[in-house]
Every structure is written in structure tokens, then in C-alpha cells.
Amino acid sequence: MSTPSENRITAVNSRMETLLDIRNLEVRFRLREGIVRAVHGINLRIAPNRTIGVVGESGCGKSITAKAMLQILPSRGKITAGEMLLAPRDGGPATDLAKLHPKGPEIRRIRGGDISMIFQEPMVSLSPVHTIGNQITESVLLHRPASKPEALDRAIEMLRLVGVPMPEKRVNAYPHELSGGLRQRCMIAMALVCRPRLLIADEPTTALDVTIQSQILSLIRRLQRELGMAVMMITHDLGVIAETSDDVAVMYLGRIVEQAPVKELFRNPKHPYTQGLLDCIPRFGKGRDQKLTSIPGSVPDPFTTVPGCPFHPRCAKRIAGVCDRGVPPLLSKVGPEHRVACVLYDAPRPEAAS
Amino acid sequence: MLTFLARRILIMIPTLFIISIVSFFIIQLPPGDFLTSYVANLAQTGEQVDEAQIAALRARYGLDEPFYVQYGKWMSGVMVGDFGRSFAQNRPVSELIWERLWLTVALALVTVVFTWIIAVPMGIYSATHQYSLWDNVFAFIGFMGMSFPSFSLALILLYFSYTWFGTSVGGLFSPEYVDAPWSALKVFDLFTHIWVPVAILAVEGTAGLMREIRANLLDQLEMPYVITARAKGLSEWRLLLKYPVRVAINPMISSLGWMLPGLVSGSVIVSMVMNLPTTGPLLLTALQDQDMYLAGSFVFLLSVLTVIGTLVSDILLAWVDPRIRFKGQES
Predict the structure, then answer these.
(1) What is the ipTM of this complex?
(2) Chain B CB within 8 Å of residue A253 CB
């Protein structure tokens, strides 16, 4: 076990190194109604030992980004541009996940081995006709040189680690015999059994009730510390972000509109969309009379392309003639690690923008 | 599981009893009996009808007795394995049925296996390549097979098997083997004949099965548990067979049991056209002749097979689907 001060040091060090570097990722869907750009050139840096929270309304492209990272997009979706550079385990050149064939052996080694994912609904994300043990050992057998009994031992050990009571018995259980919280624990065990370097948690607590939610979140945090992995926490719930993340990326219509360390974002939100999201949450201590505002309008349907800033039709601070012209890049530096894509913060001098 | 089985088997007894009454009643429903149609036949051909002889026959078989007496006579025989005699053929019913039953079952089983071997891969391919060229080709072939009358297909195939391979028309054996004792040559002869009815019957069944697998599988392919498995790094092929195909095929495995009665009564028309020594044509003539005991025994046999088939289905379903299994244990 490492002492807290050691932990802080590794956290500071790991800020330097990058596990996965996503550059200009673009995902398009070819649908009967036309082509939808679900992810619109986003940049994300994921570092070991840190949690990056990705937050946004449904349909903003956060889940699609995660699925693109594993190349498990639905059949109509395609990565059309960008790079996703995964640092290798042992030196050597980085692997560009975007270039790998979605059915090829290279990406399959990475799935479940280097990058694992847990999904939103533990009810339907486990096979109904296979035992928990079968589904967990499958991962081990795929990625580690282990015999079946060894794999089963690892599965039991992992179930114990994620706090499933009586793991020797539960490995033989079918998903429908377990509660939602237990199923999500099994999902986590399944994702972590091969000690991945990055865990993508796609709304891991949305389908669970509140008490189970916080149990699962603290479980993920504890395992992250123990296994030293990076976590990408995808959610629409800013409460989950506040509880888990080190850094936050706010997404709107396939773009990252603001990115900052978590405290900075909550204390000092810059983008009108982020401000709007934060205004939707009731706060303790402000009493009953506090006003909860909602963002006017709704997410536009994906087939219409909004000219200019994608948020400007709903934005209270829009500047006519500016916001409906060009898309602001995520460049305006408003703090040491705080960037926002909004013309309000465009530095007047060109050198500051770079 | 054992108590479940025992309970199910006990329930079968009264069910079968009621079915036997109903089937006997239905057989008696048409006006007249075997002797009236026999007399009518004789009269048509201009033969003399000996009234005294008819009356004697009528008394012997109890045809004038009330329904429940006739039923009682028949049922007390059935209990000890005597299904009565066929009027038309003047032979024990059980002999007639058994003689044809095993060939019927053999034909049907080969057909089922054949149908599955063709339909399952086609269905899987169609689902995984939805709207592709081959999906459409398979759908076209399938629907053609389903809508084309099987008896005309039978005639066409008979023509080709005769002109191309010189195989004798109709039946399951060449004339020289029909009454010959079993030998390697006779088995070989059987195989040269059996493919025609198998192909015809399989064409009929393939389309439905294929479309069913395609539809079930399409429902499963984008299910979250499939994506979970893909995210583990499984290869597409193993993934497909282990998860969605397994779930998609479940309802069809459970329907295997219901095929039992169909095995015996099905394919009547094809069997008639091809002169196959199966049970289908026998049942048809028994009904036409009002051959009471033969027809009644047939209907009863079919009912027994239906009941057993349902039991088999339930067992299969519990066996392949853990969700069913556990519900059964709780109650």
C-alpha cells in the first residue's frame, strides 16, 4: 500500500505522461436520413491514475466517443478522422486505435486487456444464459495465459475484490438471480479482471438507485487507486462528476466546449452551456426559494447543421453576427488548465490564442 | 426438477383420458359407420348386399350399441395394447400403424436434421448481412420454397430423378427391395430414394425456420450483452455463436418437441403423390372409409404425441434457458 503522500506524487507525475491521446477524433453515422457527425473533432488526453469525467446531455456523443475508443461502434458508425494514440505497456511506438480494423486481432487484444468498459444497464449488459463465472473467466482466458481452473480462481478473487458476498457461490449464478447493484459489481469485476490500464465507465450508475450509486462510485475509486488505472467517467450527472473526477470535459453536440480540472470547473464555469448545466442543480444551503433555471430549448435534431457555434440558438449570451458565423475552437485559455470554446473569452491578441 | 417432471407426467394421464373420449367422439360424428359406407360401395359396383351378413357384422362390432359402450370396448382394449381391428384391411390396427411408423419417423427426422443444417446457417448469414445481396437471394429462395406447392415440386423432382438417375418412381425402395429382407444394399437403395421426399419437405420447412432465425437474431445482435462481449475482445465469430445465436435459437429448440405429432401426420400430400409407405396416407384413407378403430387410434396416437411433445418442449426449454429453470424451482 502506498502512503497518501506517495499517491500525491504519482498523481503529479502522471499528469505529465499520457496513456491515451485522442486527437481530432471524428465519428460519422451513415443513416437513411443522411450523414450524422456524432463526434466532431475532439481532443482528449487520458493520463494514468486520473479520472476524466465526460459530461453532457444525451446525444452529445459521449458514449459514441467511448465506443469509438474500443472500435465497437454500431455498424453504421465509422471513425472518419483523427487519431487515438495508446501508449504501449513497455516502451516502443504508440498504437493508433483509429487505424486498427474493428474486427482485427490487434484491437481485440486491447479490448478487455488494456481498455475495458462497463455499461449503463447491468440488467441487459450481461448474457442472460451464461453464468457470471463463465462470462468473467472468458476475459481471463482471452487475455492471459491461464487454465480454466486458474481463470475461475481469478474470477472468484475479483468478485471478492469488488465486494460480491459469497463469490465462490456467485460464480455459478445467472444474472437474473442477482440484484442490479450486484450485477453492476459483476460487470466491474469482468472489466477489471485483466487489470486494464484504462476503464471506461459509461453511465455506470444511471440505472441504479441512489444508495447503490454511491457504493459503486466509491468502489470504482478504490479499485482505481489499487490498480493504478485511468478512468473515463461518462455521465450526464454533474454530481457523479464532482464525486469522482479529476478533470472534466463538457460535451455538446459532438464537441468539447469546456475542459478544466474539476474544482476549477465547478467554481468558475466559463461556457454558457456549462453555466446552464450547473444552474440546473439544486444546492444545499440555498433554501427552498432558490431558482433552478433550465437551459431554454432542447438539443437540436442531429440532421440539421447549426451554423456557427452549435450552442448559440440556446445561448443567452449569444452575439448576433458572431456566434452564428464561425465555430469557436477549444482554444481560449481562461486558466492554467482551463480551456473553453466560446468567443466571449477570445483573447484580443492573436498570440494568446495559440 | 424431478418433482416438476413427476407432476407433469401425472397430469398427462387425465389429459389423455379426456382426449381419447373426444377423439372417439369426433370419429363417430359423421353420419353412418364403416358398414354403411361399405354397403354404399358395394351397391355402387352393383354387387349384391347380404343384409343378414351386414347385421351379423354390425352386432359383432357393437356398432348399434350406444357411444359409451363402444368407447368402453375400445378403451379396455387400448389399455392392454389392443387398438382393435381395421375393418377395411381386416388386420390389427397396431400392426398397420407400427409397420409404417418407423419409416415415417425416419423420414421426418432426416428431414428435420436436413432443414436445420440448411436453415440455421442461412438465417445466421442473413441476419449478420442484413439487406445484402445474399440475404435477398436467400429470402427469395425461401419464399419460393414456401409458396410453391410441395406436391408439384414432388412431381418435378420425380421426373428428374427418373430421367437422370434412373431411380424408380415413388416409394422409398426399388421394386425388387420392397419385400426383401434388410441388407446393406437395401439400406443403400433407401438412401437413393429418400433424398427426394427429404428435399421436398426440407424446402417447405427451411423458409420458415430461416426467417425465424433471422428475425430472432436481428433482435439480439445489437443487444447490450453482445456489445459487452465484444468489448471483452472476443472474435466476431465466437462472439456470434456463443451469445446472440444461442439466445436466438432458444425458442426454436423448445419447439422441437411440438414437431413430434407433425412427424406422424405431416406430409400427407407429398406421401400420397410419391406413394411413400408412411402413416400419412393411411390416416387419410382410414378417415375416408370411416374405418373407426384405425382412425380413432391414429387421432389418439397423435394426441399422445402432442402431449408428450409439449412435455419434451418444456424440458428442453428449461434445459437451454436458465431463466425458465429457476422460475420452475421457485414455484
Answers:
(1) 0.84
(2) no
